[in-house]
């Protein structure tokens, strides 16, 4: 009976940690964001921009979000602190109609950046397409 109780306790602990995504100090939920301005030729009509977060160290790990230029785009991803600090994270902003691309590097190109308890924040601010 005692063995059964121990098994149940261990099972509950494992279930709790997986369901609540407990992080260690080397993993963070990253909040990466930027506000791409509209190109002059599409300033009035707007243009769709896709922000794709890329981590070359993990080829299958990428997330993206699309919105109209002039709006803030944000991607949330779980990342290792070491990957962030070594500059192994990139955000690529692709304009749909004009095919312009802007690539930003985390943390080098972050206008503002900081760590919270389990979250890393990086903002590229407002930027023009090139």
Describe the structure in your own words.
The structure is a single chain. This protein is α+β, with helices and mostly antiparallel strands. The protein has a single domain, classed as Immunoglobulin-like. The longest helix is centred in the first third of the chain and has 18 residues. This is ZP domain-containing protein. It comes from Strongyloides papillosus (Intestinal threadworm). Keywords: Signal.
Succession of helices and strands? HEEEEHEEEE
The count of domains is 1
**Uncertain stretches:** 16-23
**CATH classification class:** Mainly Beta
The overall strand count is 8
Give the CATH architecture.
Sandwich
What proportion strand?
Answer: 35-45%
User: How big is the Rg?
Assistant: 19 Å
Q: How would you characterize the largest beta sheet?
A: 4 strands, mixed
- Spatially, the strands of the biggest sheet line up as 4-1-8-7
C-alpha end-to-end distance: 69 Å
- Class from secondary-structure proportions: alpha+beta
Kindly identify the CATH topology.
Answer: Immunoglobulin-like
Residue share in helix: 10-25%
Q: Label the overall shape.
A: elongated
Query: Total number of helical segments?
Result: 2
Overall mean confidence score, pLDDT: 84
Keywords: Signal
Signal peptide: 1-19
Protein name: ZP domain-containing protein
Main traits of this protein?
alpha+beta, 130 residues, signal, ZP domain-containing protein, Immunoglobulin-like
Short description:
With 130 residues, the chain is of the alpha+beta class.
């Amino acid at each position: 009976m005692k063995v059964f109780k121990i098994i149940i306790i261990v099972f509950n602990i494992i279930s709790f940690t997986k369901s609540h995504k407990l992080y260690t100090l080397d993993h963070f939920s990253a909040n990466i964001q930027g506000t791409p301005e509209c190109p002059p030729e599409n300033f009035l009509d707007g243009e769709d921009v896709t922000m794709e977060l890329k981590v070359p160290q993990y080829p299958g790990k990428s997330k993206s979000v699309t919105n109209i230029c002039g709006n803030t785009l944000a991607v949330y991803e779980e990342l290792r602190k070491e990957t962030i600090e070594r500059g192994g994270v990139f955000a690529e902003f692709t304009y749909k109609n004009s095919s312009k691309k802007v690539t930003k590097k985390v943390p080098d190109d972050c206008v503002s950046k900081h760590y919270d308890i389990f979250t890393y924040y990086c903002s590229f601010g407002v930027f023009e397409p090139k």
